[in-house]
Amino acid sequence: MKICFSPNNIRIRLQAGEITRFDKEGCLSECLSLPGPSRSQLHFSLIQTAQEEFSVNLLSNHLRIYVPDQLSETWCRSGQNALKAELDCGTGSSLQVSLEKDIK
Questions:
Q1: pTM, 2 dp
Q2: Based on the structure, what is the number of domains in the chain?
């Protein structure tokens, strides 16, 4: 899973095996260990959900991106390259979330 951040934008790219696993298991997770005495970690999870819309939350160094299961299943099983959503941040700005296939 490749995760790219830019101002108000999260882009996630999945390779073929990850797409299959996400479709089958409904979740993908990665962990980034940071150097230093605190041994901090950042966790990232992509999760299928029964919710009707994308959502994102960050709790205890864990970024979770929730993808509606019907959209996810269709995306995983089709030739559709990307799923995109714009989430209202409630501050007059929005967060763009993009889930893309990284297939060569």
A1: 0.92
A2: 1
